[in-house]
Amino acid sequence: MVESTEPYLALEPGVRAERRAIDETQSRRANAGEWDRYADEYQATHGAFLGDAGFVWGPEGTTEASLGILGPLDGKRVLELGSGAGQCSRWIRQQGGHAYGLDLSHRQLQHSRRLDEVAAITVPSVRATATELPFADDSFDVVFCSFGAFQFLADAEAGVRECARVLRTGGRLAFSITHPTRWMFPDEPDERGLTATQSYWDRTPYVEVSEDSGEVTYAEHHRTLGDWVSLLARHRFVLTDLAEPEWPEGHERVWGGWSSTRGRLTPGTAVFGADYSAIS
Ligand SMILES: C[S@@+](CC[C@H](N)C(=O)[O-])C[C@H]1O[C@@H](n2cnc3c(N)ncnc32)[C@H](O)[C@@H]1O
């Protein structure tokens, strides 16, 4: 176990940050609880930026309308993993796609139902985990997540395998995550977040631990760019895109460790796009 030298941004009192090994079951339990607790604040803080029926790939505000990484959506069956309040899937429904949400957090899904009413666009959604998709083989044309499930999975192998299983041949997978190079830096939006303090190759998960109970209350998992490319290739995905959105001029919004101070110098988000070939 490695004690963190830097405090994670905005840690709750009584919670400490560490880097330590954690398996999929522990990770899922911790993150389900954390997202249930955090959902109200997350939606209150970021809801206007996300838009009730809006699709951004990350804190830079890069939209799917500008990136087009999912390809044509009209008439397509689309699954969003870690869909939160379903903003992205609602935007896809506006484009004519049949989008469905999936999330681990009950409270996030309650926000999704609330926004279904507000926007008058319903995203049928299910509470489940991205490593065990409750869908038949070959049932989707597109699977994606925008800062959704993928970086919360200890068992990313299972997550990508499940995407391959539910996608039809020729289907599309896309996901955004914290740019892997960001893991070298303290997660601070100011200058402190610009000095590398830990190894890029250290995959030890970031966890938050309750001082009282000793329980892990949150977990995020790091993989290098090479890890992701190899993982996709192992499951017969052909990588077609790796977008690294630039920080837009005049964009001064701070989101956790994302800010113009850092964004002008280093990428904060990576967006992968891949085709499922099913050919060995
Ligand atoms: C940063 S939020 C992003 C939500 C949404 N995509 C957005 O842009 O607002 C991450 C979401 O992933 C969900 N999540 C975390 N681990 C998951 C898992 N194993 N399976 C499915 N969803 C998960 C969380 O509950 C949370 O709603």
Automatic annotation (TrEMBL):
<dbReference type="GO" id="GO:0008757">
    <property type="term" value="F:S-adenosylmethionine-dependent methyltransferase activity"/>
</dbReference>
<protein>
    <submittedName>
        <fullName>SAM-dependent methyltransferase</fullName>
    </submittedName>
</protein>
<dbReference type="InterPro" id="IPR013216">
    <property type="entry name" value="Methyltransf_11"/>
</dbReference>
<dbReference type="Pfam" id="PF08241">
    <property type="entry name" value="Methyltransf_11"/>
</dbReference>
<keyword id="KW-0489">Methyltransferase</keyword>
<dbReference type="InterPro" id="IPR029063">
    <property type="entry name" value="SAM-dependent_MTases_sf"/>
</dbReference>
<dbReference type="GO" id="GO:0032259">
    <property type="term" value="P:methylation"/>
</dbReference>
<feature type="domain" description="Methyltransferase type 11">
    <location>
        <begin position="79"/>
        <end position="175"/>
    </location>
</feature>
<keyword id="KW-0808">Transferase</keyword>
